[in-house]
Amino acid sequence: MSDFILPDIGEGIVECELVKWLVSEGDIIEEDQPVAEVMTDKALVEIPAPYKGRVARLYYEEGDIAKVHAPLFELVEESDNDEQTAEPQPKPADADTAASNIPAAQHASGTNNTADDVTEDFILPDIGEGIVECEVVEWRVAEGDEIEEDQPVVDVMTDKAMVEITAPKAGRITKLYHDQQAMARVHSPLFAFIPRDREEPAEAGSKPAPEPTPTTAKPVSTGNRQRIPASPAVRRLVREHDLNLPDIDGSGKDGRVLKADVLAHLDKPSAPAQDQQRTSDSQPARSGRARGMPEREQEIRIEPIKGMKAAMARSMVASATTIPHFIYSEDIDVTDLLKLREQLKPEAEARGSRLTLMPFIMKAIALAVQEFPVLNSRVNEDVTEIHYLPNCNIGMAVDGKAGLMVPNVKSVESLTLLGIADEVARLTEAARSGRVRQQDLKGGTITISNIGALGGTYASPIINAPEVAIVALGRTQKLPRFDANGQVVERAIMTVSWAGDHRIIDGGTIARFCNRWKGYLESPQSMLLHLG
What we know:
It is a single chain. The protein has a six-stranded mixed β-sheet, with helices on one face. Helix 10 packs across helix 11. It contains 13 helices and 26 strands. The protein is an alpha+beta fold. It has helices at residues 95-101, 104-108, 196-205, 232-240, 259-267, 273-278, 283-290, 307-322, 335-350, 358-371, 417-433, 438-441, 507-522; strands spanning 2-6, 15-21, 28-29, 34-39, 44-48, 53-58, 65-67, 70-77, 120-124, 133-139, 146-147, 152-157, 162-166, 171-176, 183-185, 188-195, 325-333, 377-379, 386-388, 394-396, 398-400, 403-405, 408-409, 446-449, 469-482, 488-501.
């Protein structure tokens, strides 16, 4: 029997809302079966079961705020059902109570119990992001080091990006379970530490609390050092803006300071009381100098780069600095394609599908890739092999609530236009609402960026590594062109910009590929000859 611990795996997730339970107490669940949906500050995340067993207890009601490093639900392995009987544990009133009553590491893995029972293991879990193992790249601490809450402890490399793991509490490192370059598996201990707050109560219990005197009683500190509830990410945000946590009104349960409270505090026009006292001497001079200056010009707003934006920043830097890009632009006459779409649109709508140009564009790419498979390939790390991929999984960049996402339509070569249209609609809606499944974000082989939807024409797109090609679609414009008789006619022209990995794709290859793709779009009926 063990508790499933909701952890912070370095993505900035410190608390989340329990949106929906997908199981009930007493249910038998399978490994990797969805158990709950939680809303983080990035997206809606589906929490899967770590192994097969019976759900013994759900620690939160729907709508509650769950805290990282605290139990989310209790699970009894199926093999233990007949051997173990668990005494019911009181349901924690909130996440802080759960974290203090049930240490995360004691339930998630074997805690290094000493005589004082103070050592805890930090568990590397799968929080629904599809992470099953990672490489330990660099330890930032050594055994015996003192660490502070939210201090970086180790850098690990997942299948998506480099992740910085931070300390859940202040304390002392007692053991590092993995060497650098070793592989660490989820649901196993990463490091062990002795929390500092475990040691303080023992010392305080042996000494009577000193009575306050006029010289020691100060409004900013008390004898019992009462801690204002706030998550590590909120405390980091407070430090980054040089604020004092007691100055911020918490709107959460028991006065918990939330991220929204910090942002609201920053938006207040008046400065904190401490700053007013420090600058009271120079206030007349400053007010005279700033009297004619707008209030907005006196402040610089600082916003940390994190979450999806930070992941995109790292990915784009790596791609732009390691892959030599070859840019190729072209104009495509989509007049006939637009007419065909208008003819097919009513029938598609009758079947419940929304037919845009995107399904035609994707299908044409999948057909052209069959003749030029190098555009649907990958290279190994030392660029000694080309891996030709069997399926054409075409991604599309979508600007959603959580940031730029690139979900992909799987096996476009085997789908009908209506099938592609349905997948495009589903993935677009999921990305914009922040509900994209991890399997929809993985496995892409080539990407489309539709800058034309925002009015752009030409671009120099950055390849979405490890892919080797990307195309940016410009807006469609009505432009004059000469017909076969030399007469000027109005045509619908769409501009496109390809970027190819110049290590394996030369200019001639991408030009011939683009010409084939262009031919399918300018004469869409020709695609019928090549549909499987």
